[in-house]
Design a protein that fits this description.
Distance between the termini: 54 Å
Number of strands: 6
Shape: globular
Structural class: alpha+beta
Largest sheet: 6 strands, antiparallel
Strand content: 25-35%
Length: 206
């Protein structure tokens, strides 16, 4: 019986490893396509080209965090802005967003890359802050007000009903994304942007 169990375990492990190897390529391709489509969506146009994708490390809340900044040019080769991957801890786990900013620091759009929020409540983060959502941030200029805050905390953005924690996490992710973006690309930006009382120069790694 021991020999049979060991044999089954070895064969099962081998099959799993083989399946993982076979599917790794297609899964990676799908992820790349999803990201590419997401960048076009948050930048508001398909007539654009991603000219660089940089990994940026910047401290927030006393911890170093890594962001991915996808710099984009328009069809004529002019700087369009950038889509920034940013993440924070939401109510149910990590909340990862992709936010598009134009050259002047205006929010062009966003999409949720990953979340574990409660269905019917925090999961509404995917639509709540969109153009037609109750807490819309699309079109908002971040240049003069780089920190987004829900109305419950003294800000002017309506939180998701019964999901204030998720709303705070989302807005924090967007604010941090802008801080990183402004430090790297935004026109007329200062050397650093303060978000939640923190500021500092970014470290860029291509």
């Amino acid at each position: 019986m021991v020999i049979v169990l060991v044999t089954v375990a070895v064969v099962s492990g081998g099959l799993l490893a083989w399946v993982n190897q076979v599917t790794a390529g297609p899964i990676s391709q799908q992820d790349k396509m999803a990201l590419a489509n997401g960048i076009k969506r948050v930048m508001g146009t398909s007539e654009m080209t991603v000219v660089s994708s940089d990994s940026v490390t910047q401290p927030f809340d006393g911890k170093s965090q890594t962001f991915i900044v996808h710099k984009a040019n328009d069809a004529r080769g002019h700087f369009l802005g950038a889509a920034v991957e940013s993440s924070t801890m939401g109510f149910g786990g990590e909340l990862k967003v992709l936010v598009g900013f134009d050259a002047e620091g205006k929010v062009l759009g966003y999409t949720i890359l990953q979340h574990s929020e409660t269905p019917g409540l925090g999961a509404k983060v995917d639509t709540w802050f969109q153009q037609d959502g109750k807490g819309c941030i699309v079109g908002r200029s971040m240049k003069d007000h780089p920190t987004l805050v829900v109305s419950k905390d003294g800000g002017d953005i309506d939180a998701i009903t019964a999901s204030t924690i998720t709303s705070r996490a989302f807005l924090k992710a967007v604010s941090q994304a802008y801080s990183v973006y402004a430090g790297q690309y935004a026109k007329d930006s200062a050397d650093s942007v303060t978000v939640d009382g923190l500021s500092g120069a970014s470290q860029l790694h291509k």
